[in-house]
Design goal:
mainly beta; 281 residues; Outer membrane phospholipase (ompla), Chain C; 3 helices; 51% strand
Length: 281
């Protein structure tokens, strides 16, 4: 989560979201799709090592994936969600997502500081269906509030994040193409901002003065993901995201080194098996 949380702090979740925009979309949009699918994905991702870092993280990934499109429980690109439908346009789910660690010795400005551990976020998300802007398009507003847990020599909470995000899905553009566009903000409490941007006196140097982070905005971002079916079992994807950190509440931190940074991903998915049962049957 520290590289891209829902595409700002969550590189693994971001990479999985690239798999195929629409793989894990809303229940109504999933109607007629297999109840479950299992397969593998391979791809490459490049992203900032942490928000506002000038160092970059490059990953080549080969991972299994599993999708389950149940009415009350789903396993998809957003994680594992238990869902409660509040009405035709409102859905509340409870999700879990994870991320990669980062070693401070590999990041020049963090030399001598504690590593950024494996993070897991857990909490509710309200999904609101907005009026469709056109045929074949779905517009929604996601409002997730999640607690961040770090796993590194034990388990500890590292604060809360809130990520209001507009999502536009075009599941079928013709020729097997689909598209997902997102725009949103990431807000963090004092604890999670301190985790990324704070420098305690124990780790202060002449080039890295002590800094106490404040709660507030972490980033604004926009992303575009596209995918295309090459066959019933093989799909290619591409992803581009731009994060803007210039409005962050902690731009004065010595660990805040740049105001914007892109992330890119490419890869493919291969479905190895799927259910005969379909969503909505």
């Amino acid at each position: 989560m520290h590289h891209a949380l829902t595409c700002t702090l969550r590189p693994l979740a971001a990479a999985l979201a690239l798999l195929c925009p629409g793989l894990g979309s809303a229940q109504a949009q999933s109607s007629g799709l297999p109840l479950w699918e299992v397969g593998a994905f391979a791809g490459s991702l490049t992203a900032p090592a942490y928000p506002a870092s000038t160092e970059r993280m490059n990953r080549n990934l080969v991972l299994p994936y599993f999708i389950y499109r149940g009415e009350r429980l789903s396993v998809d690109r957003d994680g594992v969600d238990a869902r409660l439908r509040l009405g035709p346009d409102y859905e509340l789910d409870l999700g879990v997502s994870g991320s990669f660690p980062a070693t401070s010795n590999d990041i020049a400005v963090r030399q001598g500081m504690p590593d950024l551990g494996t993070l897991l976020e857990f909490g509710p998300r309200l999904k609101v269906n907005l009026p469709s802007p056109g045929p074949g398009l779905r517009l929604g507003l996601d409002l997730p509030l999640r607690e961040v847990f770090e796993f590194s020599g034990g388990t500890r909470s590292q604060g809360l994040v809130f990520e209001p995000t507009l999502v536009l899905d075009a599941a079928n553009l013709g020729g097997g193409w689909s598209l997902t566009a997102k725009a949103g903000l990431t807000w963090g409490d004092q604890q999670i901002n301190q985790y990324f941007y704070g420098v305690s006196s124990a780790y202060a140097t002449a080039a890295r003065p002590a800094f106490e982070a404040q709660s507030g905005l972490m980033s604004a971002r926009a992303s575009l993901g596209t995918s295309k079916s090459l066959s019933p079992d093989v799909r290619v994807f591409g992803y581009a995201r731009m994060d803007y950190f210039g409005l962050s509440a902690n731009t004065a931190s010595p660990l805040h080194l740049q105001n914007s940074s892109p992330s890119l991903g490419l890869g493919l998915t291969w479905t190895l098996g799927r259910s005969d049962a379909r969503v909505g049957e």
